[in-house]
Amino acid sequence: MMKNTHRAFRWPQPLEGQQARIWYGGDYNPDQWPEEVWDEDIRLMTKAGVNVVSVAIFSWAKIEPQEGVYDFDWLDRIIDKLGKAGIAVDLASATASPPMWLTQKHPEVLWRDEYGHVCWPGAREHWRPTSPVFREYALNLCRRMAEHYKDNPYVVAWHVSNEYGCHNRFDYSDDAMHAFQRWCEERYGTIDAVNEAWGTAFWAQRMNDFSEIIPPRFIGEGNFMNPGKLLDFKRFSSDALKAFYIAERDLLAEITPGRPLTTNFMVSAPGTGLDYDDWGYEVDFVSNDHYFTPGEEHFDELAYSASLVDGIARKNPWWLMEHSTGAVNWRPINYRKEPGQLVRDSLAHLAMGADAICYFQWRQSKAGAEKYHTAMLPHAGEDSQDFRDVCELGADLATLGNHGLTGTRLAKSRVAVVFDYESQWATEHTATPTQQVRHWTEPLAWFRAFADNGVTADVVPIRGDWDSYEAAVLPSVYLLDEANSQRVRDYVAKGGKLFATYYTGISDERDHIWLGGYPGSIRDVVGVRIEEFAPMGGDFPGALDHLDLDNGTVAHDFADVITSTADTATVLASFKSEPWVGMDGSPAIVANSYGDGSTVYVGCRLGREGLAASMPAMCEAIGFELPQSDGRVMRIERVSEDGADRFEFLFNRSHDRVSVETDGEPLVASLGHVEDGRAVLDPNGVVIVRR
C-alpha cells in the first residue's frame, strides 16, 4: 500500500564547535575490551580521522544485566571519552538481541520457523516482532536509554535496533498468526476479499472467517503454497518488523525530539528481504549496510546497490552504516579485498550520495563469531596496510568535506532502472515457469550493460519518480498493478523512452495474471503479444538450453514466444533455431511507437553481455543517444542544488590501466592521477576532480 509522504529529512549535526563534514567511523564495541584499551582506541581513531562511532548495538545484557537493574556507568565513561576527543556517538537502542535472563523467563518471545521449531538463544535476533511481551521489555529499555541520554551533547543520532529481519524476517508462531489475521482484516476488510485476492477457489482453500487464516507453515515436501497468501505473508512480515521499529522510534522521539533517528537497512542487489523503499518513508535519514560481492561483479554490484539506496533516500544524503575493510566472516569462502579496494569501495558509496562512510567495525574482535570479520583496526594492529588505508581514506574524506562535497547530491541520470521488492517476492514462488529467473538479477544486468556503454543509470524504486527520466527500464517487473500500468502508458504517451523485458507486467498486485496474452498489463504499449513462455535449461538431456539471436547475442534461461506485433512495431532482432524448436525467425527484440514516445521490448534473458551488445541498436531505435565513452570507466557526478559546484568521480571498472579525459581541479586520487587533462587509473583506481 503506497504512502504519500516521507518523514521530514533530518541529518545528524556536528558536535558543538565543529564544522559539518563527512561522517567517518564505524561500529564500536568497547564492552568487548578492557578499559585500558579505550584510550588507545581513541588515539588511533583520531589518527585515522574518525569522527563518529555507533555504540551499544548489542549491549542490552551489559546495560541491563538483570531485570530492572541498569548499569550505564561504563557507557557514560566511553561516550564522555569519545565526545571530549571530538568523536560523536550514534547511539543504539540496544534492543537487537535480548539478554538470556529475558528469554529464560519468557521463552514465548522466541520466534518459530515454518516447522514450529523454536529459535533458541545463542546467536542474535532470536525474538519475534509480534510478541507483546518482548515489545514491553524492549520499549522499557528504549525509555531508559532515552531518559538517561536525552541531554548528552555527544549523542548526535539514534541507531534504532540493528538490521531488522536479518535473522527473524519470518516468524510462524501463534503471535504472528494473530497479527497476520489482523493485518489481512485491515488490508482487505472482509474474508471474501481475502478469498478473492488469494484465489482460494483453487484446491478448496476457501475461508469463512479471519480466524481460519494461518501463516504459510510447512505443508509437506514438494507441495506448493498458495502464491497470494505467501506474497501477502512477505508483505506482512516486512510490516510487522516495521511496526516494531516505529514503536521504538516514536518512544525515542517523544523523549528526545531533537535527535534524528535511523535504522540500518541491508540493501544489496540480492538483499530483498524487507521492502526497504517502504521503510524509507519512516526514517529521518536512510542508512545502509552493504557487503561486497566477490569476483567480477564486485564494483558494479556495489555501485548498483548504492544507487538504489540513493533512490530510496530520494536523493537526500544517506549514511553507509556498515561495510567491510576486507573479508567478512559469514560466507563459505571469505575472500579478501584487492589492494586499493578498501578506499575505492568507500569512495564509490560516497559518489552515489552517501555523506557518511562507516564500517563494521572499529577494532577487530578477538573472540566470538565475528572474530574473522575484518575491521578498521585489524588483528595486526596499527602497523598494517588496512589501517594505513583507513588513515588515507580519512584524509581523503576530510579533503572532500573541506571542498564542499557535503553540499552536493548525486546528479540525476538520464535513465532510471526500476526495481520492485514485491516483484522479487512474487518471482520467488516455487511454482513458476522456471526457478532460474528472479526479478533482482535483471535490473543489475541492465545497470551493468548501461555502464558498459558509458551511462551510469539511477536505480529507482517503483514508488519513485522513474517516469520523470528521459528513459526508463522495467526489467522483469513481474507485478504491475493498474496504477503503475497507467503510469507506464502515460509516461510513454507523453514522449518517454521505455525499455521493458520478459517477465514484466505478467500479474497484478495480487499475483493474478493479466489475461489476453503477455505482457497483459502493458501489451498495447510495447506492441507485442506473447502466447507462452520458452524456459531453457540443462536439467534434462536434449532440452533447449539456449537460443541464438541474429544480432550475435545468445539468450539463456527464458524467452517469450511472441506470436504477433503491432503495426507500429519494428523487429530489431529475431531468434535463430532448428525448425523443431518452433522459434526460428520469431521476434526477440521489438521496438514500438506509442503516443509521442517509443519502447523497446526484450523478450529473452540476454544477461549483461547480450544487453550491452544489443544496446546501441536498441537506443538508436528509440532515439536515446549513447555517449562516446570508455565503458571501462564509470563516471559519477555530485552537484550542488544551484549547479555551481560539481564533483566528478572516475572509477576504473576493469583490471587494465585506463586513461580518460577529464577537466577540473584534482582533489583525491587512489591508484590514479591526473596528467595533461587525462585521468590515468590503475586497476581499482579512482580520481575525483572538482569542476
Describe this structure in words.
By secondary structure, the protein is an alpha/beta fold. It folds into 3 domains: 23-73 and 87-251 and 263-404, Glycosidases (TIM Barrel); 415-622, Class I glutamine amidotransferase (GATase) domain (Rossmann fold, 3-Layer(aba) Sandwich); 633-690, Immunoglobulin-like (Sandwich), CATH 2.60.40. The chain is built from 17 helices and 26 strands. The strands form 4 sheets. It has a 9-stranded parallel beta sheet with strand order 5-4-3-2-1-9-8-7-6, with helices on one face. α6 (174-188) crosses α8 (227-255). It is globular, with a radius of gyration of 26 Å. It starts with 22 loop residues before the first strand and ends with a strand. The model has no long low-confidence stretch (mean pLDDT 97). The active site is at residues 163, 322. Pfam families: Glyco_hydro_42, Glyco_hydro_42C, Glyco_hydro_42M. Substrate binds at residues 124, 162, 330. Belongs to the glycosyl hydrolase 42 family. It catalyses: Hydrolysis of terminal non-reducing beta-D-galactose residues in beta-D-galactosides.
